[in-house]
């Protein structure tokens, strides 16, 4: 592997709810190089989403560090983490990454306002490449599951990220949409993006360069 674009060292994350403690991550490490696609699988509750949240800087690990494109992401104030995220990371999350009161086109435009002009892919091209240009003026709630998945990917790619993090991006889509989304992920990887995708789909795992499996917060 070339120098990793995304690197996680010995991540720990605990949750406490009353008397109950959950050890969601117990010393997880990961290095992903430019152009590499890593699929993360594992049973429900094994820590996949927690890992992705830590890699995105949406959550702070209790131990360990995350580095993205040479910048330390963990153990910083949220304001700094969101700046690093805007510069280097694209995210496709199950909860959706679309703002409800903006059209698909304006969701893309909003992300692009936060990044340097030189990294901007023309919005129309982005919408066409993700197969959602015909619904550019729709609001998120007017989209089907498959359309929302494609719009989510357009938004995730709007800052031309070096790292793309996706949580079950093909979870609710039909076979044809899954194939299109996979082709896009492959295209991004071919362009040098490091991709980490949490998935239960065999089709997604089959196109990954590496498939890693979590169990009880550790790699198996
Ligand atoms: N905010 C939280 N507070 C308390 N416990 C949490 C919290 N977030 C996650 N957990 C617990 O941490 C463990 C790992 O959860 P996580 O969501 O990362 O698993 P997952 O592998 O993504 O599961 P799934 O496939 O069901 O989405 C689970 O036991 C979960 O209940």
TrEMBL record:
InterPro entries: AAA+_ATPase (IPR003593), ABC_transporter-like_ATP-bd (IPR003439), ABC_transporter-like_CS (IPR017871), ABC_transpr_LolD-like (IPR015854), MacB-like_ATP-bd (IPR017911), P-loop_NTPase (IPR027417)
Record carries keyword Isomerase: no
GO CC annotation, single: plasma membrane
Residue ranges constituting the ABC transporter domain according to the UniProt record: 6-220
GO molecular function, one term: ATP hydrolysis activity
Keyword DNA repair attached: no
Recorded superkingdom: Bacteria
Keyword annotations: ATP-binding, Nucleotide-binding, Transport
Similarity-based family: Belongs to the ABC transporter superfamily.
Family annotation (PANTHER family): IMPORT ATP-BINDING PROTEIN (PTHR24220), LIPOPROTEIN-RELEASING SYSTEM ATP-BINDING PROTEIN LOLD (PTHR24220:SF689)
Protein name, UniProt field: ABC transporter ATP-binding protein
Organism of origin: Streptomyces mashuensis
